[in-house]
Amino acid sequence: MQRVISRDEPRPKGNINRETRPDGSVWLEASKRQQHRTMAPQNKKLDVLDASELLRPEPAFTTKPVAQYRDFSIDPTDPIKERVRKLYIDMHTNQTVDFVKSRHDKWLKFDTFKGTIMDVLNRLSDSGLTDQSDPDVDIPNVYHGFQTAEGIRREHPDKGWFQLTGLIHDIGKIMALYDEPQWAVLGDTFVVGCEWGPSIVYRDTSFQNNPDGKHPVYSTKYGIYKPECGLENVTMSWGHDEYLYQVLKHNKCTLPEEALCMIRFHSFYPWHAGGDYMHLCNQKDKDMMQWVLEFNKYDLYTKTDDDLPDMKELTSYYQTLIDKYIPGELEW
């Protein structure tokens, strides 16, 4: 359950419209675009509102201080931070409208291989794939899926579909085993074909060599889209989120729409944490955001290099959920 800020508590700087829904969930809407995380050295205080602070869980839910998650500050002496920064420079240089179209042409034929969900999980486990865009952990990414699923299971024991979503949300990263560069598989996503959101990590320095920034249409606020067109009608930068979303739709899985939204947009931090792209959202997107935010606290705050889950022990439980919602062999 997300913590609702009391009306008696001091309000943070900036204007936030807050609505508590009948089911206890919270909808927060920034009245202006607000930066989610700092891109300057930590000792420099920025006068910005971090809307995600209102959604962070109590410290007991995490394995380290919440402010230490998603630290994208620049430190040339830190090899992990430099690895992350360089990956985002490659991503933001190369993720253009034309590039994304080329990835659709390649991957959305669904003719790369056939395999079950568990086949893909096992292949990712055997590969030892690590997420080069992640500043929080440096372990094989497959552990993160089980950590997320188990976090959801503890707090939502009655929602098997939600637990399964946590388990599989990153398995689109299987593309990395087919020679797709990590900058086209991992990391935060954003909309292509319009102005880049201001809260994108390294926004001010990483897009300098992306040709879409000089395009007469792609560089404008709405670009190729119409106001409130809905996120289902935009083109996202290419990565594991979009790929898995498209795979599940193609193979007619029976996960609910909320799950598919979580999968497609869980890395869309400029939207669900930064408040960007709201001018493209319709009411459905705003309603769905509460589910993405609920998912995000498990996706982000269950990460740890320690206390790794016993994947073999958990396999039989999650196989029953796979059989219910995404059975059999899929086309990838």
TrEMBL record:
The keyword Membrane does not apply. It is an enzyme of class 1 (oxidoreductase). This is Inositol oxygenase. Its EC number is 1.13.99.1. It is found in: Cytoplasm. Fe cation binds at H144, H169, D170, H240, H266, D299. GO terms for molecular function: inositol oxygenase activity; iron ion binding. Residues 1-22 have a biased composition (Basic and acidic residues). One of its GO terms (cellular component) is cytoplasm. Its cofactor is Fe cation. It comes from Frankliniella occidentalis (Western flower thrips). The gene is LOC113209543. Substrate binds at R70, D131, Q132, S133, K173, G187, D188, H266, S267. GO terms for biological process: inositol catabolic process. Pathway: Polyol metabolism; myo-inositol degradation into D-glucuronate; D-glucuronate from myo-inositol: step 1/1. InterPro entries: Inositol_oxygenase. Residues 1-26 are annotated as: Disordered. Binds 2 iron ions per subunit.
